[in-house]
Amino acid sequence: MNPLITHQRQVHLDFHTSPHIPGIAAAFDAEAFADTYARAHVNSVTLFAKCHHGYTYYPSRVCEPHPELVPKERDLLGEQIQSLHRRGIRAPIYITVGWDELASQTHPDWRAMTRDGRFADWPGQPGMWRFMNWLHPEYQQHIEDITLEVMARYGDEVDGFFYDICFFPKNACWSPESLAFRAKHGLMEDSLAGFERFQAKAQACFSKRYADLIRAARPQATVFFNAGSDSFLEPGLGARARYEHMTHMEIESLPSGFWGYFHFPRLARSTGHWGKPWLGMTGRFQTMWGDFGGLKPQAALEFECFRSQAMGGANSIGDQLPPCGVPDNGAYELIGAVYEQVAAAEPFYAGSEPLTSIGITTSGTPGLDGNVSALSDEGAIQMCEEAHYDCRLLDAMDTFEGLELIILGDNSTLTPEVVDRLRIFYAGGGKLMVSYKGGCNAQGEWVLDFLPVRLLGECAFEPAYWRTQEDFSPALSMSDRVVYQRGLRFAACGAEVLAERVHPYFNRDAVRYCSHRQTPPRPEASGEPVLMAGERFVVFADPVFREYREYGNIAVRDAWRLAMHRLVGSAPFGDGLPGTIQIYPRRRGQDLLLTLLHYIPVRKAVQIDMIEERGRFAGEILALPPKIAEVHLFGGPILEQIGEGQWKLPDFSRGRLLLEVPGYLRES
């Protein structure tokens, strides 16, 4: 059995420690260290063999041990492993790959390079990391020697390996060794698309080498290569490049930092259903990694861990051990308070699986700005979550099995293989929703010829307006509603037009402008359809998902919801609940499991969303299919039924509700 099935409460214990700090591990006490994790309900701790500064924390013959370890020959890693194992706590081992400050100075020829011959460094504040070229044969041998040394030194006590920063900065690496690799594999194209294909091939080769090495010596060990979890509609790119060579996935997403709270759902709803165990990695920090003294509110950490658990994942909370070697007491009071609740809920989720009928094809496309594709995917998932539709994000290698509706994202670039599968899906009764270029190939050509619409080109105006038919939405039809981003022009060749475009008087420029922002709409409609529909399809001419994610445009969101009701009806579980309450359906045998989370991120700082309070459920009514006879809290009382398909949520609950509906799936 993969140990992630039974060890679901991890701490990723960073220890990137400067050589300019004295007394490293001077106050470390092995028994007190292990007691800290046992009390905090932690059952796995990722420990450091070698950090970004380039030093090891054991007496290495391959690398330089940290010069300020106390005592100098101390085997800190070994002491940590042994003390945790005595408590039954796993201890996978961390090795940095892409960043190594010591090696970058002693072996500048091992550094990654840009096309113009400069070193490829991480931009930002002084002292940020220098990228290593992990395709360099000597550097690869260096990483292999460390791995072999660790396995030889600790033997059967090696639980697993976590290799970090297994990626290059955008458009690197062009060192002589990387040029040879590119030429060998026909990957010389200098473009964003070329970079994604080069990096994927490099990651596949790199991860295979070390996974094979570990499996040969320690077949029971877990292996993970950290390089992001992006997905694409081209096979073999992003996380798929490494997936075959990993035992599990770790989805790094610290929402209190620059990623925000919409980042994790995009990754968890893509790689999380590929078939291997996975965990969501957040942090205890107020901001990001290395935020000493920064503790987020307990409600925030609850939401981050409860959300991962509700979606079928384990948890990993990032921390950093202070240089003296004594864990931060406040951090483990916080972690323990959350992990105690996570542990109590594990029997509820044991043996369960997702219950998803809506798929969203990713906008991840080689050559497209990653921020654009991310915003589109996040917007689509955000709309689904707020309306309580459970969904998963599809890449090129996903199946459509079990799906009722496929949403083609704003920039989903369709390959011939995907088009063929969509044609079969639609012919078999499946339903399609298309946004913007989601029905196009890499050349921008419309390829869904089985739908009665035709692409004419790009709209001449930005922004433009929607005029909605009254019988589709009386509320939206009361005024022309702006859409801020440029869309496409379509012809509705037999499709019903639910909304059409209204042009502004002109595009705003330095000569022609009106008021403070966009030019107002003309009185007459243009005749360009922007929302077209049939019995089993809907097509939006504008990028509605990125529009909502970037601008919070509730007009396009409301039109999308009406289109969803037209195609698949309202959400089967939780329709009518506030959009701030998230609901996650799962099945366990014949029983339906529902997790309701009510935590509201608030922008309290310039770049940080914070959650300080648990939301209430008091007064809310849970709508479920009418045939349900009984709903009860996990380990608690039966909910009060106040009408057919109407269940009163308890007044006393805050933050999370775990509900069981016995036998629901047997009846359905």
What does this structure look like?
This protein is of the alpha/beta class and 668 residues long. The protein has 15 helices and 29 strands. The chain has a nine-stranded mixed sheet. α1 (30-39) crosses α2, α9 (298-310) packs parallel to α10 (329-349) and α13 (544-551) crosses α14. The mean pLDDT is 96.
Describe this protein with a few key phrases.
8-stranded parallel sheet; alpha/beta; TIM Barrel; single chain; 20% strand; 9-stranded mixed sheet
Itemize the secondary structure elements and their pairings.
Elements: E1 9-14, H1 30-39, E2 44-50, H2 76-86, E3 93-96, H3 101-106, H4 137-154, E4 160-164, H5 176-185, H6 192-217, E5 222-225, H7 240-243, E6 249-252, H8 263-271, E7 278-283, H9 298-310, E8 314-320, H10 329-349, E9 353-354, E10 358-361, H11 370-387, E11 391-394, E12 405-408, H12 416-427, E13 431-435, E14 453-458, E15 464-468, E16 481-483, E17 488-492, E18 496-502, E19 529-533, E20 537-540, H13 544-551, H14 554-568, E21 581-588, E22 591-598, E23 602-603, E24 609-610, E25 621-623, E26 632-633, E27 640-643, E28 646-648, E29 656-661, H15 664-667
Parallel strand pairs: 1-2, 1-8, 2-3, 3-4, 4-5, 6-7, 7-8, 10-11, 10-12, 12-13, 13-20
Antiparallel strand pairs: 9-21, 14-17, 15-16, 15-18, 18-19, 19-20, 21-22, 22-29, 23-24, 25-28, 26-29, 27-28
Helix pairs in contact: 1-2, 4-6, 9-10, 11-13, 13-14
